[in-house]
Amino acid sequence: MNAVAQAGSSRDAPGCSLPASPCISTPKLVDTGECREIFGYTARRVITRTTYRSSPEGDSLPSETEADGWYIDAPSAWRAVTSPSSGHAYLHLSADGRIGRPVFTESGRRETGFCLLVTRTHRSGYRDAEGNVKAHTSVDRDEVTEFSEENLDPGLFVPPRDFRRVLRLPGEPPLQFTHRVRLQWEKVKDVFLAENWAR
Fold this sequence. Notes:
The chain is mostly beta strands. Helix content is 14%, strand content 40%.
């Protein structure tokens, strides 16, 4: 299995050996006009229906996601750390290790508010070995249960005095050499970042 993830980019993904595989997403917003108070903020209900289509289709059929959410105006702290541009995640399963280059095209407007409650319904389909169409539907729900714009206690980010970093947890097999090298490199970066923050 190979997994490729890109965010808002059409550059070649690592390991790509097949032609480009365009993926077109089309979001449509429906502002219901409904409002309600959540955590003292006025939230508006917006339904977003997004269709996804790949070319060529192959065994995958067009899919759709409906997000029924309640949004407030994005807090300033959230805007400071969040990119206004949207990203894409691309998962490709391959039995022979060959994957194509994902190229994303998006048309339509996206909701830019801060979501406090959303229910997503995903509908997709595929063709099996006999050519029969199989449908799949899944539902997930995200909800903010506590919300505040107050500053966090700095002590929340201080590790306990008895904290120590370990290469692996008890009972786990030893790490591969490349993973150990990567871990050491991450430690070096942590030290460098800590020194810069202290200045």
